[in-house]
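Quick illustration, no need to memorize.
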Amino acid sequence: MAARLSAKKLPRYSLEFKRKAVKLTQVPGMEVQGVAKGLDIHPVMLSRWRQEAREGKLRGTTREPRISKKVVRELKRLQELERKHQLLQEEHELLKKAIRFTSELRARDSLLSKASGRGSK
C-alpha cells in the first residue's frame, strides 16, 4: 500500500480580499512587494491575482472595493521604513567590512614592525 501524500493546508482568500489586494497595488507609489508583505501574503500570489484581475477573472457581484486612506498611508509608511532599514543594513555591513579591513592592516603592520625591530638590534 502506497503512502498518501498529505495535502498542505493553504489559506483560502475571499474574492473581496483578492480584489482589495489588487486595488492596493494600483495606488500610485505602491509596490507589489510592499503590499504583499503588508498583507502577509507571498508576492507571487499577489502577482497571480493581478494577472487574474487583468484577465477579468476576479470580477465579483459586489461594487468596486474601496481602500481607506489610512491603509494606503500605513502601507506607504511601511515601504519607506523598509527602504530605510535596507539602507541601514547595507551601511552596517560596509562598516563591519571596513573595521575588519583596518584591523587586519593594523595587525599586519604590527607584525611587520615587530619583525623589523628585532632584526635591527
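The two ends are 84 Å apart (CA to CA).
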